[in-house]
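PROTEIN–LIGAND DATA SHEET

This sheet pairs a single protein chain with one bound small molecule, NAP, given as SMILES. Inputs appear in the order they were entered. The predicted three-dimensional arrangement of chain and ligand is reported afterwards as a token string under its own label.
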Amino acid sequence: MPAIPTITLPSGAAMPVYGLGTWRMGESAKRRADEVAALRHGLARGVTLIDTAEMYGDGEAEAIVAEAVGGRRDEVFIVSKVLPENASRRGTVAACERSLKHLRTDRIDLYLLHWRSAVPLGETLEAFAALTAAGKIRDWGVSNLDIDDMRELATLPGADGCAVNQVLYNLTRRGIEFDLMPSCRQHGIPIMAYSPIEQGRLLGHPALREIGARHGASAAQVALAWLLRQDKVAVIPKATTLAHVDDNLAALDLRLTEDDIAALDKAFPPPRKAVPLEIL
Ligand SMILES: NC(=O)c1ccc[n+]([C@@H]2O[C@H](COP(=O)([O-])OP(=O)(O)OC[C@H]3O[C@@H](n4cnc5c(N)ncnc54)[C@H](OP(=O)(O)O)[C@@H]3O)[C@@H](O)[C@H]2O)c1
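PREDICTION REPORTED AS:
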């Protein structure tokens, strides 16, 4: 498979535009082997970014990532997240230490604030700066931050280090295109699209099926290719079924035409006014 394109982050690190999600992993002992196998399969096929969080399976998803990565740590770009209730100056550092233990590694490539809470953003940023200085994280970013939160973030010291905003973005959730996405673009902050196939709910839509049929592609590939055609947008579909891992990866080779894009705009109209950021 050709190398996956990358986005250059403030640290100079190259972040792949395609990765593997892990939400709902680590919640069942019965599914664990399949989850490890799915991540290993993705890695074997050349996907090196894995998105996880301390929240997922209460740290068990991070442990699954560690098991899947094994001795290949240097090839892998790991994203993890601190829970808002842990996001104080000291709490963030402690949460990161726990994640490093679960992940069985000495650094996290990209560490995100999972969503906003009452903890002042400045405190979390101070912790991110300390963790960066200590070499425990390479880059930091945010998740689920809407336009007002991003505006506030921009006023804080060190905000220009923000590497991504990871948000809900797919054909049925286009609200960010109105203001959040243009604002992130203006500040050079890439969007990492989570739930890019709307947790599977998107896949029965006739428009996706029709366009897919024209290209010999699946509905999932159309949904992912629609996101991937955009500059500075990364996707992190989650799949525990090996066939799904393969199916999704083929999206990297799918080029949608102008007609396809127009048909998708008709089926899933872009926003005409500001709407609050949706969250799953
Ligand atoms: N920052 C945040 O607040 C936040 C929130 C949500 C998600 N995320 C991250 O984003 C990742 C992706 O989002 P998500 O897990 O919510 O949803 P998603 O990736 O949109 O969808 C995952 C679901 O779709 C199924 N699936 C995957 N590929 C498929 C295919 N080709 N054909 C048919 N079904 C397919 C999977 O089934 P199988 O597992 O059976 O293959 C799974 O049930 C998460 O895992 C997590 O890492 C972050």
